[in-house]
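Submission sheet (multi-component)
Chains listed below:
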Amino acid sequence: MALDHLDLDVDHGQVWGILGPNGSGKTTTLGIILGILRAQSGNFSWFEGRYGWEHRKQIGAILETPNFYPYLNALENLKIIQHIKQSYDDPIEEYLELVKLAHRKHSAFRTYSLGMKQRLAIASTLIGSPQVLIFDEPTNGLDPAGIVDIRNTLLQIAAMGKTVIMASHILDEVEKICSHVAILMQGRLLKAGRVGSILTENRIIEVACKEIPALKQALASFPGIINLAEKDGLLELEVHPGTDLAEINRLAFNHHLVLTHLREKANRLEDEFLTLIAQNG
Amino acid sequence: MIRYLLTLEWLKYRNNGLVKVLLLFFVISQSFLLLTGKKFPELPPPLPAPSVIFEFPSVFVYQGYIGNWLAFILLGFLAIYMTSSEFSAKTFRQNLITGIRRSQMFQAKLYTILLIATGATLLYWLSCLIYGALHTPDLTIGLVMERWEWVPRYWLMCFGYMSFAWMLSVVFRRSALATIFYLTYVLFLEPILRWAVHYQLFNHRSMLFYPMNAIEDLVPNPFFEYADAIQDKDMTFPLFLHPWEAVLTASIYIAIFLLITYQVIRRADL
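Outcome: structure written.
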């Protein structure tokens, strides 16, 4: 069984990230709500049933890979999407500008790089001004520059006020783009809610000096500190997001301690995500 | 709805090289292949003089026989390609995500197949009229109309081959597999079943009621008129189905093919 008791409500205007390792059921979930996979039991509804069978025309979605007619060019492929959605007045050229494909709009889809295919897929989701956009692993397999491009485009789209559901196994991506997050693990929903409430935004700072115990004592009085732990000859401080690192340095110096190490630990959220996954695995 | 779905298919295939080549090849072959009959030598009786190839009413038979092969190969492959390519490019899945319903997907392909069968039939009918008018010595309306029922039967034959090929394409999903099975079944599997199994076990005319044989007998090969003279002496029944038996049998099989196709499209995980 791929999915087990997954229960989730998405409200208008929210940008949801569905987060989970490969094989956790993200694509299966999206496939079921898009009607291309059949669930053995359970149900879902779109727009409280207002559009009946036509609901999919209110949704722009890409699932896993971008799927287009390989022998047709970008414009011809988008025309098919327009025809299906019966929406013939879309500013297609603008959409192609947005995803930086205008210069290749007359090339056959099969000649596109993976990044271009992904970008065309994103442009295609905008056709018919759907209320909801669904992106499944939009940056999968792209090079770093391609990833940045796609993220910027997604941020622009999120800023248009659309409801967005995005599946990803890259936490950083979800953190940067989404307002809400649902964490899936082996088909079960581990947690769901606002990004800040699920994944703490607190920062972890590593500090060290020659006299660790004295430093530990000094930092105990530091405002904004949440947790303090000694680890591998370093002190790990969990602090509020707004903390200024210079204040830590100044405090130590005022106590006549000279820091030999002061560094913010990157991927704080990644760690927490992995811990969460490990606890539930 | 019909127009909406046919426009969708048109947008998909108007710039498709393979579809164009297949259709062009069909049009050229169905129009001009008969001209090779000009080179045929005189054959011994009971076979007719080559000139009847171009004359009313037998021009319908010879053009039909050419069309039988062309529809089997070219239109059959076209039907396979138009669906299996949607599976392999995952555009079937994307069409659904974009907003087409499964039943509409079925209808879109069905209407396309019906349209192609109708176009092919018009070409068959027109080319027969032109060849016949140019070559028949004593032209009368009666002669022109004598084999009128070959025209709708030709249509049913095209539809039959394509609906069988279409069913195979949704069952196998890959065009190579579907094509190999299609050719193997029509050319070898069914003839072996009929002749080596059915006929040996029961020397009975039920061996004629296999699906592809029925579709083939809608527009039988020109020797059907001389079947009595050439067929196996042990055979206790005519070698060909009566036209109306062929129409009825083929129609039943086509309904079954379409039903299976519809069910597969309705239920498939994509």
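Remark: Chain A has two domains: 15-198, 203-280.
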